[in-house]
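Quiz preparation item.
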């Protein structure tokens, strides 16, 4: 996952279902989305995009501005918050996660770089920051249990939104093999569909959050 583009959009995610007929009136929900931040906390210069662009402070300010005018917004991140600058090399993800939470991210998932220092490091940084990590297709090989919750249900403007986290097949292939031994990966498409079918009767909208959707 090399892209550094940070995209905030109202519908930039893969939707497996739409609003169910049970909703009798239109309800507005805004979904904000970023991915592949790669520990770019400070602004940076780009030969193609300009000088002094990006950075977590600007992102947080933009999210707050949008939420001030769109109270039913939900901010999600599709993974690879880790790796890419000295902020990760030194702090091993703590700075990335703490600032992601401060910027308003309400849930994220696993990209291949979340595993760069192993699952124990990832769990440690999650515990420190309190960030919500979702992933439906990575299991603990020792007991067959999910490492993280498969999904979380958010309510915005009366709409129940189930967000399913998952790591894509290609992202799993790119993950550092030496850190994957304790983990069992299950194919993204089949696993996501299984979870979506199970929870669909109880929610209005299902959103799949993934760095590399299959």
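Solution:
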């Amino acid at each position: 996952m090399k892209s550094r583009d940070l995209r905030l959009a109202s519908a930039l995610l893969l939707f497996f279902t739409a609003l169910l007929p049970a909703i009798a009136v239109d309800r507005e929900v805004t979904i904000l989305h970023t991915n592949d931040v790669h520990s770019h906390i400070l602004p940076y210069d780009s030969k193609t995009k300009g000088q002094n662009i990006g950075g977590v402070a600007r992102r947080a300010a933009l999210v707050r501005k949008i939420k001030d005018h769109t109270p039913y917004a939900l901010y999600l991140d599709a993974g690879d918050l880790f790796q890419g600058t000295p902020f990760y090399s030194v702090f091993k993800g703590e700075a990335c996660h703490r600032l992601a939470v401060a910027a308003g991210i309400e849930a994220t998932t696993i990209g291949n770089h979340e595993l760069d220092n192993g699952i124990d490091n990832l769990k440690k940084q999650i515990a420190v920051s309190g960030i919500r990590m979702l992933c439906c297709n990575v299991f603990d090989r020792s007991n067959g249990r999910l490492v993280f919750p498969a999904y979380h249900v958010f309510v915005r403007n009366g709409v129940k939104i189930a967000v399913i986290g998952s790591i894509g097949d290609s992202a799993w292939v790119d993950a550092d093999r030496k850190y994957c031994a304790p983990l069992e990966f299950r194919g993204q498409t089949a696993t996501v569909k299984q979870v979506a079918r199970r929870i669909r009767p109880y929610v209005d909208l299902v959103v799949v959050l993934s760095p590399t959707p299959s």
